[in-house]
Structure formats: C-alpha cells, structure tokens
Amino acid sequence: MSQTKEISSLEVIPKREAAKHTAKNDLWVILHNQVYNVTQYVEDHPGGVAILLESAGQDCTEAFEDIGHSTDAREVLEKYLIGRVPDDERTETLTKTVPEVIPQEVGEIGSQDINKKHIRAIVPTISAGLLLLTSFIWLGGRLLKGVPALQSSGGFWTGFGISSLASVSMAMATGVWFNTLIKGKAKESFPTRIKSGINIAKRRSINSGVMNPREFRSFPLVEKQQISPDTYRFFFGLPEPGSLLGLPTGQHVYVRHENSQGDMVSRSYTPVSTNRERGRMELVVKTYPDGFMSQYLANLAIGDKVDFRGPGGKMKYTRYLTKEIGMIAGGSGITPMFSIIKAVCTTEKDNTKISLLFANRTEDDILLRKELDEYARNFPHKFKVWYILNTPPPGWKYGSGRINEGLIKERLPSPNGEDSKILVCGPPGMQKAMVNTLVGLGFRRPSAVAHVTDEIFIF
C-alpha cells in the first residue's frame, strides 16, 4: 500500500506480534500486508474509536476497502507505517480492477484470395447451369404445345421454370466457390486470437455511474431550495443529462471542504434521489449554527462546485434484503431511510414492508414530511409512518415523548431472523438507547463495524 517507504527495508513483524497490540493506547492494524501503529490516530478517526478497536491487531484490509477510503485517508496512514508481515504470512491484496479491452486485429480477405483456381471452379458450374436452363425452356415449350389446356398458363410455367433453374444454378455456383475458398484457406494457419487493426477507445458508460469511491469529483450546484428555516434541498448537476450517480440505495457520499486552518474536512450525506434519476443528485441538509460543513453548503451559490466522493457505507439495499423493515430515525437521520423508502414505494416488484418511527422536537422539524405522507397514503401496503414529537401541538394525532419499548413492539416488526431488520439513524445517544432496547426485545446486537446482514443496522 505504501510507496513512500521501501518495502524491503521495513521491519518484518509477524501477525502474532501485531495481535498483541489491541488497546486504545497501543493499537496496531494490518492493511495490505503492512503493519501500522495507529495509536495516535485513534481519537481523530472519523468512524470513531469503536471501529478501530474491533479491528485492532487484525488484518482489516477487506473492511478498509469495503468502506471505500479516499486517497487522502491512505496518505494519512503513511506516517503510521512501522513494518510488514513475513512473506509466508502474506495474503492476497484486495484490489478492484476493470478488465482491459485488448485491441484485436481483423483479418482481411482481399482480392488476391479469389485467384484463378476459384474462377476455374465456378465457370463449369455456371456453364452447366445455363445449358440445363436452355434445355428446360426448349423442352418445356414443346411440351406445352402438345397440351392445349395448359397453353393459357404456359407463360407462368415458363417463368417458373426459368426462375427455378436460375436459382439452382446460382446456388450451385456459390456453393462451389465458397467450398473452394474454404479449402484454399484450410491450408493456411490462423492465429487463435484474431487481432483487430481498429483501436477501440475506452469510454465510461453513463450507466456505470459517475462517482468514484477513492477520488473526489466536483459537481455544480444547479438549484437550491430552503424548505424550512434551517433546512435546504440542494440539486447538483452530473456531467451529462443522462448520467447516473452510481450510488446503491442506502449508501452515502462524502463532501469535503477546506477550513480556515487549511485542513480538509469531510462529512457524509445520503442523497434523497435514487440511482434511477439521471443527470442530478439531490441532498436534503439540516444546518447547525456550529456545523462547519452544513454552513458551507447553506452559503453555496448557484454554479458553485462541491467535491464529492463515494459510494460509502455498508448498506446496499435490494428488494431481496428482507421481508420487513422497521426504521427508527431522529431528525436528519431520516435521509438514509428516505432513499430506501423511496426505492421500495416506486419499485412495483418490491413487496418489502416498511414501518417508520420518526422522532423530532417539533412539528416544524419533520424533514420530508410531505413526501413521507404521500408514500404512506399511496402505498399503504408497503409503508407506514408514525411521528413522535417532544413538543406536540394541540390536536396532535401521533405520538409524543420518546421512542420506547412499548412503541417499538406495537409498530415495528418482531425479531424473525433474516425476514426482519431494524434500521437506526439519529443522534449517538438515541442510537445507543435504541440498540439496547432492541437487543432486549430479542434482536441480535450489531458489531461496531456495520454489516448489511445485521439484524440491527446502524447508519
């Protein structure tokens, strides 16, 4: 992985030695057969301390690549490189490659291939065909004269005979010529791979998606809507009107921007547009007074370009994931849920059932309420939503207070192995409380690094 230090000069560290360093104040990991001491990076890790502690002392190459770390993240690791694993303990490096199209040469059949021997083979056949045709016409005419009843249709039979014999003659001639040509070529040797003389330019299909999990790409802001005092809807234009984002449902993108100290800050956001929508990407972002990235986005002007990278995250929703999904969202935690709700409701063949508990402080804080109510109204067999407010208005017909065990048992699916799943996204305190409650109800506790197969999936 590292190019800065000469691999052969690195200290050889057996995996059993790396496995001893698993504490928060002494933490090593193995990536691409190289050993890193990331103790000083633990507090700065964007994914939190728990993820690093779960991978401590182990080979975490697969998890590292699955998340889709950027070039910047890989450069950060360089300073923590301390060694390499022994040659006999090396594992295959995980790389994602695109098969290269090798230009091939097209063999030519030129005029020189049709030589005199081919012509000599054709001429006798054509001559025989013409002689037979002439004889047929002469004989047919004599026969027709002797049969008065057929003379009225004699022209038809003559034409029929002429066309039939002509077709037969041409077929025979063509067959002999082709057979002779093949026999002539059979003596020559052909390569097993026929190379093409045409250079085929490699062009990325717009259907493959424009996002790159390792490199940031800039997209311009084409439309901006303020949908509440502290929430905006942003529309970013993709390179072409027909371009797809290339983001699996449930996954997120990373946005980066340089702060006043010259450091690059990165945050993740889940688009509310689906991967079937071409030419644009849509984000809904709640702003916070002390939120560096949300304030940066809020102050964008039309035409400004923003750096995006992705996809990221472990959730890749498909209609075969499970039969029933329970969702618990708090505040802006609705955005990753919304992309799945939208995909399920707008896909006719998707029969997944979704139940959402959506907690907010006030009614005005409910993001995407218009869209959620519309999906619940138009697809009652697929989607149900129940709102919970800390401060409900008079006449409020939904819930109030906090999401508790009784509400979860009443409105969300019960544990049922692979046939049910609970998704949770919201403030850290809420997520922790919900996980503990769900585990008490019989769901299996999730690991620190989320997996799409978890019964409780934390965004």
Describe, in plain words, how this protein is organized in 3D.
- With 459 residues, this protein is an alpha/beta fold.
- The protein is 31% helix and 21% strand.
- The protein has twelve helices and 17 strands.
- The strands form three sheets. The chain has a six-stranded antiparallel sheet with strand order 9-8-11-6-7-10, covered by helices on one side.
- About 11% of the residues have low confidence.
- It is a single-pass membrane protein.
Q: Which characteristics define this entry?
A:
459 residues; alpha/beta; Elongation Factor Tu (Ef-tu), domain 3; 4 domains; six-stranded antiparallel β-sheet; six-stranded parallel β-sheet; 31% helix
In short:
Helix content is 31%, strand content 21%. With 459 residues, the chain is of the alpha/beta class. Strand 2 (22-23) and strand 3 (26-31) form a beta hairpin.
Main beta sheet, described?
6 strands, antiparallel
- The helix fraction, in percent, is 25-40%
Average predicted confidence as pLDDT: 79
Number of strands: 17
Q: How many structurally independent domains?
A: 4
Which CATH C-level class of the largest domain is it?
A: Alpha Beta
Span of the ends, CA to CA: 28 Å
Strand-residue fraction? 15-25%
Transmembrane segments: 121-144, 156-178
Pathway: Protein modification; peptidyl-diphthamide biosynthesis
Keywords: FAD, Flavoprotein, Heme, Iron, Membrane, Metal-binding, Mitochondrion, Mitochondrion outer membrane, NAD, Oxidoreductase, Transferase, Transmembrane, Transmembrane helix
Family: Belongs to the flavoprotein pyridine nucleotide cytochrome reductase family.
